[in-house]
Amino acid sequence: xxxxxxxxxxxxxxxxxxxxxxxxxxxxxxxxxxxxxxxxxxxxxxxxxxxxxxxxxxxxxxxxxxxxxxxxxxxxxxxxxxxxxxxxxxxxxxxxxxxxxxxxxxxxxxxxxxxxxxxxxxxxxxxxxxxxxxxxxxxxxxxxxxxxxxxxxxxxxxxxxxxxxxxxxxxxxxxxxxxxxxxxxxxxxxxxxxxxxxxxxxxxxxxxxxxxxxxxxxxxxxxxxxxxxxxxxxxxxxxxxxxxxxxxxxxxxxxxxxxxxxxxxxxxxxxxxxxxxxxxxxxxxxxxxxxxxxxxxxxxxxxxxxxxxxxxxxxxxxxxxxxxxxxxxxxxxxxxxxxxxxxxxxxxxxxxxxxxxxxxxxxxxxxxxxxxxxxxxxxxxxxxxxxxxxxxxxxxxxxxxxxxxxxxxxxxxxxxxxxxxxxxxxxxxxxxxxxxxxxxxxxxxxxxxxxxxxxxxxxxxxxxxxxxxxxxxxxxxxxxxxxxxxxxxxxxxxxxxxxxxxxxxxxxxxxxxxxxxxxxxxxxxxxxxxxxxxxxxxxxxxxxxxx
Amino acid sequence: xxxxxxxxxxxxxxxxxxxxxxxxxxxxxxxxxxxxxxxxxxxxxxxxxxxxxxxxxxxxxxxxxxxxxxxxxxxxxxxxxxxxxxxxxxxxxxxxxxxxxxxxxxxxxxxxxxxxxxxxxxxxxxxxxxxxxxxxxxxxxxxxxxxxxxxxxxxxxxxxxxxxxxxxxxxxxxxxxxxxxxxxxxxxxxxxxxxxxxxxxxxxxxxxxxxxxxxxxxxxxxxxxxxxxxxxxxxxxxxxxxxxxxxxxxxxxxxxxxxxxxxxxxxxxxxxxxxxxxxxxxxxxxxxxxxxxxxxxxxxxxxxxxxxxxxxxxxxxxxxxxxxxxxxxxxxxxxxxxxxxxxxxxxxxxxxxxxxxxxxxxxxxxxxxxxxxxxxxxxxxxxxxxxxxxxxxxxxxxxxxxxxxxxxxxxxxxxxxxxxxxxxxxxxxxxxxxxxxxxxxxxxxxxxxxxxxxxxxxxxxxxxxxxxxxxxxxxxxxxxxxxxxxxxxxxxxxxxxxxxxxxxxxxxxxxxxxxxxxxxxxxxxxxxxxxxxxxxxxxxxxxxxxxxxxxxxxxxxxxxxxxxxxxxxxxxxxxxxxxxxxxxxxxxxxxxxxxxxxxxxxxxxxxxxxxxxxxxxxxxxxxxxxxxxxxxxxxxxxxxxxxxxxxxxxxxxxxxxxxxxxxxxxxxxxxxxxxxxxxxxxxxxxxxxxxxxxxxxxxxxxxxxxxxxxxxxxxxxxxxxxxxxxxxxxxxxxxxxxxxxxxxxxxxxxxxxxxxxxxxxxxxxxxxxxxxxxxxxxxxxxxxxxxxxxxxxxxxxxxxxxxxxxxxxxxxxxxxxxxxxxxxxxxxxxxxxxxxxxxxxxxxxxxxxxxxxxxxxxxxxxxxxxxxxxxxxxxxxxxxxxxxxxxxxxxxxxxxxxxxxxxxxxxxxxxxxxxxxxxxxxxxxxxxxxxxxxxxxxxxxxxxxxxxxxxxxxxxxxxxxxxxxxxxxxxxxxxxxxxxxxxxxxxxxxxxxxxxxxxxxxxxxxxxxxxxxxxxxxxxxxxxxxxxxxxxxxxxxxxxxxxxxxxxxxxxxxxxxxxxxxxxxxxxxxxxxxxxxxxxxxxxxxxxxxxxxxxxxxxxxxxxxxxxxxxxxxxxxxxxxxxxxxxxxxxxxxxxxxxxxxxxxxxxxxxxxxxxxxxxxxxxx
Lengths: 547, 1165
Description:
Strand order of the largest sheet of chain A: 2-1-3-4-5
Low-confidence stretches of chain A: 1-9, 179-189, 531-547
Largest sheet of chain A: 5 strands, mixed
Largest interface: A-B, 110 and 132 residues
Radius of gyration of chain A: 29 Å
Protein name (chain A): 2-hydroxyglutaryl-CoA dehydratase
Distance between the termini of chain A: 115 Å
Structural class of chain B: alpha/beta
Oligomer: heterodimer
Strand content of chain B: 15-25%
Low-confidence stretches of chain B: 1156-1165
CATH architecture of the domain at 53-195 in chain A: 3-Layer(aba) Sandwich
Structural class of chain A: alpha/beta
Number of strands of chain B: 35
């Protein structure tokens, strides 16, 4: 070809006419011979991601997938930042059906539930609200958190696009709130979504507050005297915080207001209830709907006190990952490139930043927690979890909750944190049922007192799951009762005496007793040291004499 | 069990509502004595039966006031009933545990097999506290070895109940039965029955499979403690099952070194108690005694009566789905449009000469034959349920066809005979059939013959679902149900049977329903579990049948086909297969299709059941007409064909460890030759009788294989061999670069590089290392990195014969070593335990190993650019930790055998970190210096590079050759471990012997220059920066192996001579997101494609066979097209050349310039 350029210009025109003739002839003949059809077309995936400033006022951001409290508060934050936001309902079995129809076969059900939930909502917009496809695509978008994990979670967005395409919403925008890299947007500059400090701080606040609200609620609800009073108070608290976030007001007064609401709930902490910790795959243990058969509610109905994992812990885990990976690479003989390698990175300052982030989150959390009245709540110590689990589940292995499930179970048992540990994960979850559960069988062998139940969720067969939970809960109840009886006997108290005493430890919704054993009622008894001990001793003697 | 004791003032009732029976006991709370008990089958009327028993109890103990009665209820059907009688629900495993603790305090474990579930309870003692802990486990959704499965299989095996009760366990002749899943088990049993295996052997095989399954899976890796208590219906009533437990449990004890009293008679060690059916009910009472007063206060019968009368129906309305048919008019219209016209057989006149062909479809459950005249009209149809011998079936049908013609005085002249279905091969051989085509093609031909240019053909038979996508009158693509999705005709049939409704009345019944329960689609076992649940909730049979019909299209389109945008498939759909006689199924299908493709035309084949036979007949007509004569033996000869069928020890296949029990059918053809048909084998080797023939067969296959290279197979062998002589370790005087690490005040790190001599370990250490033996399992990521490990160890001085890889995966290996797991992931991961077992118990026995090395490889090398990450699958990376847990939890098998287990984390994407990781992992056992280890790492990488280069060179040769010759090469896309012949089930070999060279993903050249030709458009459009990239199709590319697979699909889509075979394992989480991607890539480009998804431990031979044959058909057509294309291209070149001459001739007249002419001639190319 290069020779052609060297040709004199007058020759060139002649050449092109000659060439054109020939090409035209070739095209004609190709058509005649049917060769045109033989040419292959190739598929590629258009990734619609633009969200421009000019569309900000007319575009509704759809959001969802955390706990109901979190979703609600995040909506408040984003509204406060001037976005049109709509959080979606908790995914239900209907969402699962949509997910299964439009998703790939063999996905895990968090994918089906969340992807299906979006499709379900878009169907609602189209079929019930009568919006056209074009209208939906242009005036709505969906934000989800992306991941880089080695499990299927990292490919959620692929799944969203596939399902949207197949459900007839081509071009619908799914923005990825990348855990490490912030929001990805190919078109950069004019993005309407400003991922600045106020965005992240706002988001973080919503996460912390959501966690705190959940923690308080799960502590109080099992012991409430009047059924439904906790939920009613929580609804008011959520609204107070939502308004504060939406109007970007100072949070402390709002939190104090919430505290007053919570203090109005009446509780009886002498009820013996086993404490059940729900761990497992992040989504399955977080959702509060059909995705895990509403396990939290079911357990409470069956007479358990539930302990859920906080989203803050997840953020702390991500920080831990960063610190661990950096430390492991700092002293190598050379620097590697790539995602994890330290080539061109300042390891020292990275470690310092991560350390500060960890501290800042913990301080913020505790400030809010103490203000609202969540006393004695400890965010997990990530280094400790990593350390106790490493021997069984290598800390280098990632995906899902990584070593955390194993670490949490060990700590739950070794430190008598709870009476029972329930590990819930979607059917076929790679890191959880494919690895953790295998390792957990060794842990339960090493700690024969551990009451541990792994559960795979599929969306159906709830009866079987409930049945298995009941099977284990029975043992947990016995364990809790045993702890309680031991506490009573150590403190020389009878149940009747305890009931008569009615200290604020038993009745104040926000009081927490020092942790001695797992069962809350037993801790209340232990908490009644000193004074009641002597008091009860006399009473006991009197009783004995009476007999 | 009745005794009324006077002086009783209170009672506790224990009621157990199971899946088939209701049991009740009445206990005196003072002394825990059973006063009364009874049990009855409930025939799905649980509530009614409970009421009946309560009435009986009320009559018996009329003197006890109601307020002094407490009730506790347990069992899978107890939930909805409890509240109506005031009973407290007790979970059944807890109930059984309580009963056992009360009645048999010395029992160590309990195995209970119920109708729908299986439970194991192991009582473990905490050595520190002395507390007894009950470890309990229940089967999860996959109901495997349960009563329901046994019942179904018993019917399939055709053994009467009374005989089963007398059967004794005999393990001398056991056959393979997959007990993992009820559907698989049934399929295997049916095949055994067909092969003529005596039913006693079948039942023993089933028992063995169930026992082994429970021992390996349900125990979750725990060892049963003695004494073992057997509970539940099957354990109680089937002596052979009890005997099987007694045989197998002590074996596992011995294997695991569990100490049990060997002097105790086995009948006492593993025993069935009297009255075991009441344990759960009695346990519920024991549980109740722990409950505070006021819990479980019996409220009498009224509530229950009310519930039976009204309560159930009211509750259903909330969750139920729509009915199948909304109105009478709709039904009428539908019937008019879709009822299959009644077939009227042709009538013949006396003396008429009927010239016709016969098409025969020898299916696995039934055979069909059609008589078709020269103009293609169907004259007669014949149907026969399979009797297990295809020759006999065929003879009988042919005879009936002949008789039906001759009865009317006419004379039948058969001008051709064609066969399809699983019997086609034997018919071709014995009857010299003119045509032997695979089912899919036969179905396609029949539909095209009937409806012309159709887009989609959906054939739903008894066992499987076939969906064919058409283009230009030929199969463009197809989907077959795998063995797992049995949601098909058989299921509808079985369901109708359960309700005692003839399947012909299915539609009529289902159309009556006003609502329907929403079944979850998928596996038949899950559907059946759903059915049981819905029945408990109170759905009527009409509603259940409607619900099941509605789930059928979901199974077809969402589970088997998985193409949600149905409108892309086209708009002309043909439904065929025997299931279409059931109008309920048709209605559900039509609604489903029309909802998604509003302008669809849906046709039902007028002969839905015989579509395959008709296709064979049509093809026969064509072939015979074209050829001018028929090879068919002749009708009379065929009918009179004599044969001998044999099934005994002499016909058992001994050529591999499966020892299949085969049936030989020897037929004598009129020319005096014997044609032998062999059935009942599962692999190729079973097709021959003696050793000589095996050698012949193997030789023939080897010959073929030599001719057509199989790079997957080559790679699988080559990878583990020593092919690279590592460079010797540097001498101590060689200088190396190193860094000094210093901490700064602020916690930062400063590194200063300097030079120093290479550090060597002592010659004594080198000598010691040469003797160390290291075992490595041939699994998972080792399939990506084997050359590295071999070279790493060899460089450090380990003798090359001391690096021992476990064997290739095989069924035998899995049988032996698959009992250690506590979880149930994908097969490639599950099989790890068998490989470790293989190393520990085989290789180690032969010559001791010092280490077993199984690294947690977190990141693997990739050849792709611009990826987000190159991470391993988390299951793959974590498997070594799982193995450690499994082999150390009760007994440390490594320690007891003197082997050290090493499972360090290793990355293959960061060289420096990897060096550190390996040095830290081996420093204490290999005693080498860090320099030596680092050097060995570099050598390992060199070996990897060399290996890749060799494979790519071989791949390049094949690719260039097929392109030149207009042939097709088959590219296997899958995960690296799919190269293991035990994981790919040898499916590649099937294609290899058909004449297609096989490429592995590794063998595709990765040279950008070479690839540019295929990726030119992508590079020019800027969608990618280089050829080795997948961002244009998949930005979320974290998982290394998935990315490589997607890229390979992209390559295949761009290379005209590459066809794809896509392998994927059951439960593969990382393949799931790529299904849609690969489908889009492949189908947009029109690349020939076939998939074998959901591969598991057992080899689905039948399904593989159909796939291979169908795909071979499409590949053949594709190759023809390639030839045509090449011809046309040549033609085009010729025409252009001619034109050029014309044009240059014209030009030459005007202006003669030789310089330009030479240039022009370049332009055309």
